[in-house]
C-alpha cells in the first residue's frame, strides 16, 4: 500500500477515536448544543436522534478526514468550550506529528532503493521520481488476487447496498476548502488527475515565472492544485494516479513547489472517483450564489466560465460585466489579462479569481491576482 494512502487511513482511524472520546466527554446539554451547531451549518441533517457513537460514525462518513476533526474543534469554540477545544486540537497535532515522523523515513528508503538501480536509458544520473513507481507495481499473483476480490465483491453486492453507498457519497462535503488550515502539507495525498490547464507566465517582484493549474480528486474530495514547479508536469496527465507530498496549503489550494514531491503510482494503481465529485470539480458557480458570499471573511477564489455582457478598457485594467442565467457580476483584470482580445458574447474561462468587495460602492466583484489565468472562448457565429 502506498505510504500516503496508508497514512491517510491511519489518520482517519486515530482522529475517529479522538472524536468519539470528545463527544463522550460532553455533558448531555452540551451534546444537544453540538448537534444543533452541526445541523445549523448544513453539514449534516437529522442528527438530533443520534447517540454519540452514531454521530461520530456519521461525521466520519460524511466529512472527509481531517474535516470532521476540524469541525468538532470549531464547534467546541462556538460553544465557548475553549479549554476542551484546545485539548483536542493538541491531540490532533500530536497525531499529525507522529504520522509525519513515520512518513519521513519511507521516502528516504525508497530514494536509496531507486538510486541503486541502473538507468534504462543509459544516462549517468537517476531521477528517483521516475523510478519510485517501479517499487509500487503489483506482482502477477497480487493482480490475480485483487481481480478475484473485485469480481467477488461485484457479484455478491446487493442493489440495496449499492444505493446506500451512493447515498453516502452524495452527502460528502467535497469542496477543496473543507477544514484545511493554511500551512505546510503534513500528510501526503493520493489523487487522480482530473484536469490540467496550460502552462502560463506570471509576474512576481523578482522576475517572471511559469506555472499551471490542475484539479485532482480521490474517493472523498477534489483539490485545486497550483503547480509552481513545472518540472513535475509529466506526472500531471489526465487519469493518472499520483502521490503529492511536502506541498503547501493556501486558501484552499495545494501549492506544489520546488521542495514538493510528486510520485507517479503507475498503471497498476486504480482509483474510482465518484461522479458527483467529478461534477462538482467542473461546475461553474452561479453568480447569484457568489453575490450571497459578500460578507464572508475568508478569501474565496472562483473558477468558472461566464459570458461577456460588457467590456470597458482603462489605462490600468479592463472591466468586464459577465453574466449567466442568475445575474451579472464585474470581473476586473490586470496586467497581461487586461490586454486579452475578446468581444461581447465571447466567454471567459476564469481560474483563480478572487471574490472581493470594492469599498467605494460596496460592490462585489471578481479580480485577477498573481496566479490567475484566463482563456477566451470565442462565440459561435
UniProtKB/TrEMBL annotation:
**Name of the protein described by the UniProt record:** Interferon-inducible protein AIM2
Record's keyword annotation contains tRNA processing: no
Its BP terms in the Gene Ontology are: activation of innate immune response; cellular response to interferon-beta; inflammatory response
Q: Which Gene Ontology cellular component annotation is one that this UniProt entry carries?
A: nucleus
Q: Where is this region: Disordered?
A: 98-185
Main location per UniProt? nucleus
Where does this polypeptide localize?
A: Nucleus
Compositional bias annotation for Polar residues: 113-130
Q: Tell me if Cytoplasm is a UniProt keyword of this record.
A: no
Q: Which residues form the signal peptide?
A: none
SUPFAM superfamilies per record: DEATH domain, HIN-2000 domain-like
Amino acid at each position: 500500500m502506498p505510504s500516503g494512502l496508508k497514512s491517510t487511513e491511519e489518520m482517519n482511524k486515530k482522529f475517529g477515536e479522538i472524536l468519539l472520546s470528545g463527544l463522550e466527554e460532553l455533558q448531555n446539554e452540551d451534546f444537544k448544543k453540538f448537534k444543533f451547531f452541526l445541523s445549523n451549518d448544513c453539514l449534516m441533517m437529522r442528527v438530533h436522534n443520534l447517540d454519540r457513537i452514531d454521530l461520530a460514525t456519521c461525521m466520519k462518513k460524511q466529512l472527509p478526514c481531517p474535516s470532521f476533526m476540524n469541525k468538532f474543534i470549531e464547534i467546541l469554540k462556538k460553544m465557548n468550550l475553549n479549554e476542551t477545544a484546545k485539548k483536542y486540537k493538541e491531540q490532533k497535532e500530536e497525531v499529525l506529528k507522529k504520522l509525519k515522523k513515520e512518513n519521513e523515513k519511507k521516502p528516504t528508503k525508497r530514494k536509496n532503493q531507486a538510486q541503486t538501480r541502473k538507468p534504462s536509458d543509459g544516462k549517468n544520473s537517476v531521477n528517483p521520481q521516475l523510478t519510485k513507481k517501479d517499487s509500487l507495481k503489483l506482482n502477477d499473483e497480487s493482480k490475480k488476487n485483487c481481480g478475484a476480490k473485485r469480481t467477488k465483491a461485484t457479484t455478491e453486492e446487493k442493489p440495496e447496498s449499492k444505493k446506500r453507498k451512493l447515498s453516502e457519497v452524495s452527502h460528502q462535503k467535497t469542496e477543496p476548502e473543507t477544514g484545511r488550515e493554511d500551512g505546510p502539507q503534513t500528510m501526503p495525498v493520493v489523487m487522480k488527475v482530473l484536469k490540467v490547464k496550460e502552462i502560463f507566465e506570471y509576474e512576481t517582484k523578482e522576475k517572471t515565472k511559469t506555472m499551471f493549474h490542475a484539479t485532482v480528486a480521490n474517493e472523498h474530495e477534489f483539490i485545486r492544485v497550483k503547480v509552481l514547479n513545472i518540472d513535475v508536469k509529466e506526472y500531471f496527465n489526465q487519469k493518472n494516479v499520483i502521490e503529492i507530498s511536502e506541498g503547501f496549503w493556501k486558501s484552499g489550494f495545494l501549492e506544489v513547489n520546488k521542495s514538493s514531491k510528486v510520485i507517479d503510482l503507475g498503471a497498476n494503481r486504480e482509483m474510482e472517483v465518484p461522479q458527483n465529485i467529478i461534477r462538482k470539480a467542473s461546475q461553474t458557480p452561479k453568480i447569484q450564489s457568489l453575490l450571497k458570499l459578500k460578507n464572508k471573511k475568508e478569501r474565496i477564489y472562483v473558477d468558472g466560465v461566464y459570458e461577456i455582457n460588457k467590456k470597458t478598457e482603462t489605462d490600468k485594467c479592463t472591466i468586464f460585466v459577465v453574466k449567466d442565467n442568475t445575474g451579472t457580476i464585474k470581473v476586473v483584470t490586470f496586467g497581461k489579462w487586461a490586454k486579452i482580445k475578446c468581444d461581447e458574447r465571447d466567454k471567459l474561462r476564469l481560474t483563480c479569481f478572487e471574490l472581493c468587495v470594492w469599498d467605494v460602492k460596496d460592490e462585489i466583484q471578481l479580480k485577477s491576482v498573481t496566479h490567475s489565468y484566463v482563456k477566451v472562448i470565442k462565440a459561435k457565429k
